Amino acid sequence: MNACTYVHGPLLSGTTERVCLIIGSFDGVITVHNYIMDRIMEKPDPNPNTTGEGRLNVERHKQVKILVPNSTAGMVIGKGGSYIQEIKEKTGAYVQISQKSREFNLLERCIVVAGKLFMMYW
């Protein structure tokens, strides 16, 4: 059950987010993910970012953002959004995938998964 974690220094292009890349076996990645979620719960951000509308994002600790390559986003979305809808129905979580960027030449799309705390653990 091995995994390697790498935190990318600069902000992700076009966002206020930093990237934590977890590489390893399935069990190792899940273990590291849950460890990170535990640390976030222990020490919430004292200066949370605001949303696009200027509101504080106080529920950030209940969100996971996953970057997927543009080339595989369709496999996550499904035809007409069918896979996203299935995930929502089976888990009760909020799931949203970003549109392709027109302003930046980004290679990834961001999937936001939000919900009750237990939904963020895998």
UniProtKB/TrEMBL annotation:
What Gene Ontology molecular function terms does this protein carry? RNA binding
InterPro entries per the UniProt record, alphabetical:
KH-I_NOVA_rpt2, KH_dom, KH_dom_type_1, KH_dom_type_1_sf
Family annotation (Gene3D superfamilies): 3.30.310.210
A Pfam short name: KH_1
Q: PANTHER family of this UniProt entry?
A: KH DOMAIN CONTAINING RNA BINDING PROTEIN
Q: What is this protein called?
A: Uncharacterized protein
Q: Which species is the source of this protein? A: Schistosoma mattheei
